[in-house]
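stage 2 :: seqdesign
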């Protein structure tokens, strides 16, 4: 069972598991190679924007659909160490649902079709997130009812297809503050009551706010803050209370938005008892920086400039900007770089770069992949998943 395997690994290593967003093909290859080299479980946490079923046109990462992405990972993960995971599955978690203003019922049906494709394609960990509502702020009990509907649906699909399935639950958008222990208690009591009364397996992970939030290229949450935040208990006081609640329910804590935290903060994760943590945009930015950097180093300024223009004009950087940001065009472009990696325009640029860099014995994809690996290794080391 995947659940017992993950629980056992965390317990024996006293570590924090790493969830990696599949920001690009090189990112996926790097994660697979690290998992197989060190023989450790790594979760590939695909959002619906990144990887989506063929029924809905696929995602922006490598033009993969859920089905082709799953096939690629399963075929290349020779030792079976990757845990295929859905991150933020649920209503209005895909851009077309919000752009077309899907109703609740239509968005829930869309989420079900997406989940079904996940499960049938071999995803083992499903994060159900019903925190988004484009028409208002629903009561927490209504949010939970939506979660229950999707939870039961996913389990029935898994049973019909004879698939193993582990659940991750989370019902609140990350704000950079810490979670209220009473809120965790209420959510878990309701979720476990639902599972027990319907003879469903209880979730393995709950997403808990630990003071992390990513904007631009830094973590602006309270976790890494050197000063106390007015009106809020520090993480080292608040988290043990939340852990006590989770321990009583035998459920593990999962942290989102862990990108860009300091080495010291990462090293505190296993000590504090954070069982798993997700990192995504940092690895995409790492690859963008590496691509731009190698072009500048070898005087391929014309290609570098075209990359920056392509990335900047995508406007995908907008969602990551702080209010009144001082970031310039270059920084914004590098933040958005991974969104254009799968476009024909970027492929043309990379082919031109490859033709130039081969004269210096540089394989561009191997070069980029190794840079991303170094970024991932920082987390694996400080989370105690490996020893270096």
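stage 2 :: out
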């Amino acid at each position: 069972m995947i659940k017992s395997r993950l629980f056992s690994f965390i317990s024996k290593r006293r570590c924090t598991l790493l969830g990696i967003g599949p920001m690009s093909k090189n990112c996926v290859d790097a994660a697979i190679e690290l998992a197989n080299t060190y023989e450790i479980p790594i979760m590939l946490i695909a959002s619906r924007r990144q990887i989506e079923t063929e029924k809905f046109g696929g995602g922006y990462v490598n033009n993969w659909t859920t089905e082709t992405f799953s096939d690629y990972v399963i075929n290349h993960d020779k030792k079976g160490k990757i845990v295929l995971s859905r991150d933020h599955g649920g209503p209005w978690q895909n851009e077309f649902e919000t752009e077309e203003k899907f109703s609740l019922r239509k968005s829930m049906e869309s989420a079900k079709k997406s989940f079904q494709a996940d499960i049938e394609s071999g995803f083992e960990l499903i994060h159900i997130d019903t925190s988004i509502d484009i028409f208002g702020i629903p009561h927490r009990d209504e949010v939970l009812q939506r979660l229950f509907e999707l939870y039961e649906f996913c389990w029935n699909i898994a049973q019909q297809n004879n698939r193993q399935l582990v659940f991750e639950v989370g019902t609140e958008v990350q704000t950079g503050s810490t979670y209220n222990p009473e809120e965790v208690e209420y959510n878990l009591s309701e979720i476990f009551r639902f599972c027990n009364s319907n003879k469903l397996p209880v979730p393995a992970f709950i997403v808990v706010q630990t003071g992390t939030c990513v904007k631009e290229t830094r973590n602006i949450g309270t976790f890494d803050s050197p000063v106390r935040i007015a009106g809020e208990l520090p993480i080292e006081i608040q988290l043990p209370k939340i852990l006590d609640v989770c321990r009583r329910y035998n459920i593990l804590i999962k942290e989102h938005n862990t990108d860009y935290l300091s080495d010291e903060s990462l090293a505190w994760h296993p000590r504090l008892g954070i069982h798993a943590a997700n990192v995504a945009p940092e690895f995409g930015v790492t690859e963008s920086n590496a691509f731009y950097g190698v072009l500048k180093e070898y005087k391929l300024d014309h290609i570098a400039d075209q990359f920056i223009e392509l990335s900047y004009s995508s406007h995908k950087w907008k969602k990551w900007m702080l209010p009144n940001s001082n970031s310039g065009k270059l920084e914004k472009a590098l933040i958005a770089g991974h969104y254009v990696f799968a476009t024909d325009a970027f492929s043309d640029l990379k082919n031109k770069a490859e033709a130039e860099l081969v004269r210096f014995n540089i394989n561009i994809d191997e070069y980029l992949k190794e840079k991303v690996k170094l970024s991932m290794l920082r987390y694996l080391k400080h989370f105690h998943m490996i020893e270096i």
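stage 3 :: structure notes
- Residues 227-233 have pLDDT under 50 and may be disordered.
- DSSP finds 14 helices and ten strands in the chain.
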